[in-house]
Design brief:
heterodimer, A: 136 residues, alpha+beta, B: 180 residues, mainly beta, two-stranded antiparallel sheet, 2 helices
């Protein structure tokens, strides 16, 4: 499974309107990341200037998504990242700024020794097991 | 979009189920690196094929510009890391002499081969023991999907493109990759 497929399956398709969905996860991811999304504040905003941690079981984000998306919004970023990486399963770590993210920026982290922090146009790979918080 | 017109040796290499027995390139005696940036000027009037790329970067999706304002497409900066090395080695299974015949006239290689980087002084081929997939330490020599890796070892899986075209997101999956 590639990054856009993972992102859309576990997070993106909860946000993408039905009439925008196709059979292509890459195209759907590009559509989602380029469109304004309704927030629980009543406003709408592109998926930007926020962080997101996506796992097959849960999604945590600072994006003020609608409650029906089922995202965890009260979790601290560092806590969410540790909680996603330590069990060893696949996850996706996103750090979005104001620039538009694209499907090719999405990478799945399969191992904490090569954690991939995805940003628009840039992916930082680091060894999370060497972080101070890993053993504490 | 660039098109490979010279140096395609894919038909000369062993390939099983889309997986080529051809390694990544490994720099020999790499002693320095340098950051190099290039600016690509994307002009919708001149480069209509870039309209889809530019569209997502515009505030309202509005690309209606006049001929006198063709600069509105904007510039996109791309950064690369140039490595100083005495040679690059690949390992592969295939027709050695036929590969040499194809590549021996190629003067530059690499992503920025048209910008003066990656100049080739000489091409050589030699027989070896490696098949292009597995190294002497039983390490992966190229991105190999984890479900197709039967050699074992505690290698770190990462998402990577394992078959051409390598820029296509759809060709990425969970792979064991070499450290280059």
């Amino acid at each position: 499974m590639n990054g856009p497929e993972f992102f859309m399956r576990y997070a993106g398709y909860r946000l993408l309107p039905e009439d925008k969905k196709t059979d292509d996860a890459v195209a759907d991811a590009d559509t989602l990341l380029g469109m304004s999304l309704p927030m629980h504040t009543g406003q709408s905003l592109r998926l930007s200037s926020c962080w997101m941690v996506v796992t097959p079981q849960w999604v945590a984000t600072s994006f003020k998504a609608l409650a029906l998306a089922g995202f965890r919004q009260e979790t601290e970023r560092k806590t969410a990242i540790d909680e996603a990486l330590k069990p060893g399963g696949p996850c996706m770590l996103l750090a979005l700024d104001k620039r538009s993210m694209t499907a090719r920026d999405l990478f799945v982290t399969y191992d904490a020794r090569a954690a991939r922090m995805c940003s628009p146009g840039f992916v930082k790979t680091y060894d999370a097991t060497k972080e101070k918080s890993w053993t504490s | 979009m660039s098109c490979l017109t010279t140096g395609d040796v894919s038909h000369l290499l062993l390939c099983k189920d889309d997986l080529y027995f051809a390694s990544s390139g490994f720099a020999v005696d790499a002693n320095a690196t340098q950051r190099v940036s290039f600016v690509a000027s994307l002009r919708p009037e001149h480069s209509p094929q870039w309209l889809d790329v530019l569209h997502s970067n515009t505030k309202n999706g509005d690309l209606k510009i006049g001929l006198s304002r063709q600069r509105d497409g904007g510039n996109i900066i791309n950064a690369y890391t140039a490595t100083v090395a005495s040679a690059i080695e690949w390992y592969a299974t295939g027709d050695m002499q036929a590969v040499l015949a194809v590549v021996k006239s190629i003067p530059f290689i690499g992503k920025r081969r048209t910008s003066g980087f990656g100049q080739v002084k000489q091409w050589e081929v030699a027989s070896g023991e490696l098949d292009g997939l597995v190294g002497f330490a039983v390490e992966p020599l190229r991105p190999v999907p984890t479900e197709r890796w039967s050699e074992g070892g505690d290698w770190t899986p990462v998402e990577a493109a394992w078959k051409a075209p390598y820029w296509d997101v759809r060709n990425r999956t969970c792979c064991f990759v070499p450290e280059v």
